[in-house]
Amino acid sequence: MNGNADNEALTAFMKETADDTEAVKRKKAEEFIKNHRHMLAGIYLLDRFLVDADSIDIEKVKGLMETMPGKLQDTRYVEWLKEKIAQAEKVQVDRYVPYFDLPNTKGKRINRLSEAFREKYLLVNFWASWADSLSNEYRNRELRQLYQKYKKNKYIGMLGVSLDVAPETWKAAVKKDSLEWEQVCDEGGLNSEATAPYVVDGLPANVLISPEGRVVAKNIWGDALQQKLEESAAELEKRKKK
To answer: Is the pTM of this model over 0.85?
Structure first.
């Protein structure tokens, strides 16, 4: 961050919000941006707390950016941020998901239209063996429980998409962590062309896709994910009985 004023403002904001929840930080970041629209520090806070939020409000982000003066609009940081937002917009809730087709551990090509997932809600989990081990362990435990619950369900499917770059490392992690549901990998890491449209900035991450290929939810876990899966299964069961 260049400029003493920007550095000082950003440092003060971080100290002031150090003990706040993420939700409160987002609200305060939004107020900061509105009140300091000429400062580069506002761009950083926009990226950190609103663009990288679990659920991004595209229209709000665009509105905040539009209030910024031309001098900021022309910076490289803002150009990069606009591109990032454009990618995020492609996988917003209710948007159709980008297509990908990747090999599983046996080399078979898998996509959301594969027979095992056809006419189901599909929970896609993005992960990598090199990601934070505690996060992987915690989320994998949750996913294993979900798989045991839904592995014979006619309305819910699960797919793991690894961002590993070495196939043997990926396969070893699948075995070690007992990831029994379908797993695929394209060895592209965070630069994977297949997963780039999903705007996966942190791992693990997930997206729930409807049978029609629309995004239903992104990056929800715990009780929220459990509830969404139950609602989705019930909705699809009701729809099929008509």
So the answer is: no
